[in-house]
């Protein structure tokens, strides 16, 4: 899939603001958004499975309820972004800046967070089963009520992390 255009993003915004009565939901599987600056965009409910967002600027971006399963967000700056109730199974966040990100209720089964900065991130009520947090900064992160079967925490900074059961 080619890179979504500015018109595609505007149509999605219209779709969101009219509760689907007008505009079009962003549906861009395998989109190439490497290095894109999407700071502060509202991409709630966007369908971006297998998208490549490596190195993208996603600061404060709203991905609430979006599908980013199997997407690459490696080395992206998503600090302060919201992935509430998003589908992120198998997503790659390796080396990403996820400081203060909200993953509340998100499905992150098998996601990769190697060497990511997820300090202060909120994973409450989500599912991080089989996720790999090797070498990640999870200081101050909250996993309260989160499913955590088989997560990998080798070398992770768990200072003041809450709710971990592994």
Which descriptors would you attach to this protein?
166 residues, 7% helix, Pectate Lyase C-like, little secondary structure
Explained architecture:
This protein has a single domain (27-166), classed as E3 ubiquitin-protein ligase SopA (Pectate Lyase C-like, 3 Solenoid). Helices cover 7% and strands 0% of the residues. 51% of the residues are buried. The protein has 166 residues and is mostly loops. It is globular and about 45 Å long. The protein is built from 1 helix and no strands. The chain has one helix at 6-17. It starts with 5 loop residues before the first helix and ends in a 149-residue tail after the last helix.
CATH architecture: 3 Solenoid
Broad CATH class: Mainly Beta
The average pLDDT score comes to 96
Q: What class do helices, strands and sheet pairing give?
A: little secondary structure
Q: Which blocks of ≥5 consecutive residues have pLDDT under 50?
A: none
For the record, give the distance between the C-alpha atoms at the N and C termini, rounded to a whole number: 39 Å
Radius of gyration: 15 Å
Q: What name goes with the CATH superfamily?
A: E3 ubiquitin-protein ligase SopA
Total of DSSP H or I helical runs spanning 4+ residues = 1
- Outline the biggest β-sheet: none
Q: Percent range for helical residues?
A: under 10%
Q: What spatial form do the alpha-carbon principal axes imply?
A: globular
- The total tally of domains equals 1
Listing every helix as H and every strand as E from the N terminus to the C terminus, the arrangement reads H
Give the beta-strand count: 0
Instruction: Work out the strand percent.
Output: under 5%
CATH fold topology: Pectate Lyase C-like
């Amino acid at each position: 899939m080619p890179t979504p255009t500015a018109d595609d993003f505007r149509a999605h915004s219209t779709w969101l603001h009219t509760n689907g009565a007008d505009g079009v939901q962003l549906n861009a599987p395998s989109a190439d958004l490497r290095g894109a600056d999407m700071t502060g965009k509202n991409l709630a409910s966007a369908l971006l499975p297998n998208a490549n967002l490596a190195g993208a600027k996603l600061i404060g971006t709203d991905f609430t309820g979006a599908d980013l399963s199997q997407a690459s967000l490696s080395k992206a700056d998503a600090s302060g972004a919201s992935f509430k109730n998003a589908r992120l199974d198998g997503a790659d966040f390796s080396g990403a800046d996820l400081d203060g990100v909200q993953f509340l209720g998100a499905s992150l089964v098998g996601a990769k967070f190697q060497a990511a900065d997820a300090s202060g991130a909120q994973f409450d009520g989500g599912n991080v089963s089989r996720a790999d947090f090797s070498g990640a900064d999870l200081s101050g992160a909250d996993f309260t009520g989160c499913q955590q079967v088989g997560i990998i925490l080798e070398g992770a900074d768990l200072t003041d992390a809450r709710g971990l059961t592994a």
